[in-house]
Amino acid sequence: MEESNSLLVIIRHAPYSSNLLREGLDAALVAAAFGHPVDLLFLGQGVTALLKKQGSGAPGMKATRPTMDMLEMYDIEQLWTSEETLEALSLTRSKLRDNVQLVQAQKMPAFMKNYSQILNF
């Protein structure tokens, strides 16, 4: 059953390919700061933000790892990706942060119905 103010933020961009990952994380943090339940779904290149080991970005770009590390402080504990995304990028579950959960692509429509609001970045 969906909560009336639940939010799913979908992140599809790699950490240093654009500002969209950072903007998605910022939107999630703001919503969580105002008491909204927030989950994050990483698809496509966005899943690279979930890697345990990350490099640094270009000069002048803020690192995303510190933001990812503080999500739990804002009660954002549900991080999701799809099994198909991992397969497409030749990644294994063991290379991701410990708190990442997997959802199958075929179950994605039902998964998304659990949220009253969805933002794409």
TrEMBL record:
Q: Where are the transmembrane segments?
A: none
InterPro entries in UniProt? DsrEFH-like, Sulphur_relay_DsrE/F-like, Sulphur_relay_TusC/DsrF
Return one GO MF term. Answer: transferase activity
Q: Which Pfam families match?
A: DsrE
What UniProt keywords apply to this chain's record, in alphabetical order? Transferase
**Homology family:** Belongs to the DsrF/TusC family.
Q: What is this protein called?
A: Sulfurtransferase complex subunit TusC
Q: Which gene encodes it?
A: tusC
